[in-house]
Every structure is written in C-alpha cells, then in structure tokens.
Design goal:
about 290 residues, alpha/beta, globular, six-stranded mixed β-sheet, 11 strands, D-Maltodextrin-Binding Protein, domain 2, MqnD, about 15% strand, Menaquinone_biosynth, 1,4-dihydroxy-6-naphtoate synthase, five-stranded mixed β-sheet, EC 4.1.99.29
Length: about 290
C-alpha cells in the first residue's frame, strides 16, 4: 500500500467536548506539546456525530465509539492512546420510579445514539424490547424526567447527575459487562485513517501521550479549556468525570485493554451481522 502522509500535512482531528477528551487533548489544543501535524482547530461534537463522520471517512483522526468501529475498520486503525476504557465507567439504565429490570421489557428507552457502545450493551442485555428513542446524550435525562421516555440510557456525566432529575438507577450496564465477561469495558477509542500509514499513526499516538502527560502535570493551566467546553457542568462533576474516564488505559490500552477490545468488537460485529475485516486492528500490529 502507498501511504499518503506528508511530513508537513495538517491532519483533521475530532473529539467530544466531554471533560475526559478535552483533558486528554488539552496539550495539543493549547499548543503546549508538539502536535505532530494535528490541526490546532479540532472538530468537537457529540460522540454519535463523530461516529457518523467516521463512517463517512470525514476525519483523519477521531474519537469513535467501539460499537461504531466495526463499520469503519476498513478505513481506520486503532491508536493505543486517548481512548475511554476501564472499570466502573459504564452507562446506566435509569427510570423515573424505582423498578426492576423486567418492568422495562416493553418500555420506550431514550438512547444517546444507535452506534454508541451504550446501545450495544443494551442490545446484548436483551431485556428491553420496547421502542428506542434516539436523541443527543444531554437530552436523555430530561426526556425521562418529563415522561417523554419510560427509561433512559445514560452516558458521560449523566452517570453522576441523574439523581438531580429525580431519577433512579435500574442497572449499571458497565458492571453487568464486567461481571459477565470479566473484562474492563471499552467505550470509545481514537482512530486514524489507514491510508496515512504507520509513521503518521506513530507520530499521532505519541502526540496524544505527550498531551495527556502535559495535562496531568498542568491541570490548573488546562482547566479553563476543559471548563469552557463543559457547558453548565459543575466543577466537581467535571473532576469526577475526569477521574472516572481517564486512567492508565488512556495512555496505552495494554494487553488487558486489547483483550477487552477484541471481546467487545466481536460482540458488536455479531450483533450488527457483519464480519470484522481481516486486517490488523492497531497501527503497529503488535497484537497480531
């Protein structure tokens, strides 16, 4: 294959405005580390919007849900850094009143997008057979609280804020995944266009690690950038968000992370009725 990356090329970049992403990428966004060709003006959007752009191949480097990745592995490699993967960080199923899971079998469930990993987990659970009401993630809690939906699939900071809406947790889907499989939960990852080649992927992976390391050393300097994209989120919720979703896997998924990713991608492919391409998942192919 002929690689298309040129050393002076600017690479388009997409990630979400959620605190874990803006924390990880703050060093790049603020120009505090070598960007290795990444644009200083990234595209920030809800993860489902990023999933759709990735399926179209719109961005060179982007955050994406693992559930969406099965549809675009022919175009993108996985990077080893920058993702969201861990324990105790999964989506929640919530309702207006305390209830058992079986009470929601025919419930209308608000979801933050069909390509999200959260929705994959709900499908794997197989307990909710009612309609799915697709909306942006920040609309899920208000929809359940207002009665527009019977239940909601909560991601991001909703994990911490759902009690503010008077809602009740029915099931922690992340805990369910961990107990069922024994693996940590892969939520989202950073991918790079395969056609750019391994040298571009190496440079970008290293840039993300530099950015994360810078943010950890300079949290006060990174804070205005993180806070500026967090909308109305309270400072304590921002901090809890970062503590929950940024961990050692964010720097390098490592062997355990690779195992978890392969397990989840297999489940996602089976659920979608597609086959994973016979290509390396990661740019450096060390797992092959």
């Amino acid at each position: 294959m002929e690689w298309t990356f040129a050393m002076n090329q600017e690479l388009s970049l997409g990630y979400s405005p959620c605190p874990n992403d803006t924390f990880i990428f703050s060093g790049i966004a603020l120009g505090r580390v070598d960007r290795s060709g990444l644009t200083p003006e990234p595209f920030l959007a809800d993860v489902e919007a990023l999933n759709k752009k990735a399926r179209r191949g719109d961005l060179d480097v982007t955050k994406i849900s693992f559930n969406a990745l099965v549809h675009c592995l022919d175009q993108y490699w996985l990077l080893r850094s920058g993702g969201a993967l861990g324990r105790g960080c999964g989506p929640l199923l919530v309702a207006r009143k305390p209830c058992a899971l079986e009470d929601l079998r025919n419930a209308a469930v608000a979801i933050p997008g069909r390509m999200t990993t959260a929705h994959l987990l709900l499908e794997l659970l197989g307990a909710c057979e009612g309609p799915r009401l697709e909306m942006s993630f920040e609309q899920v809690l208000p929809a359940v609280a207002s009665g527009a939906a019977d239940a909601g699939l909560v991601i991001h900071e909703g994990r911490f804020t759902y009690p503010n809406y008077g809602l009740h947790r029915v099931l922690d889907l992340g805990a369910w995944w961990e107990e069922t499989t024994g693996w940590p939960l892969p939520l989202g990852c950073i991918v790079i266009r395969r056609s750019l080649g391994p040298e571009a992927a190496r440079r970008v992976d290293e840039a993300i690690v530099r950015s994360l390391d810078w943010a950890r050393r300079h949290q006060a300097e990174a804070w205005p950038y993180i806070r500026g994209h967090a909308q109305e989120m309270e400072p304590e919720v921002i901090r809890r968000h970062i503590e929950t979703f940024v961990n050692d896997f964010s720097r390098d998924v490592g062997p355990e992370g690779e195992g978890a990713i392969r397990r989840l991608l297999g489940e996602a492919a089976r659920t979608a009725g597609v086959q994973l391409p016979n290509q390396p998942l990661f740019w450096d192919s060390r797992e092959e």
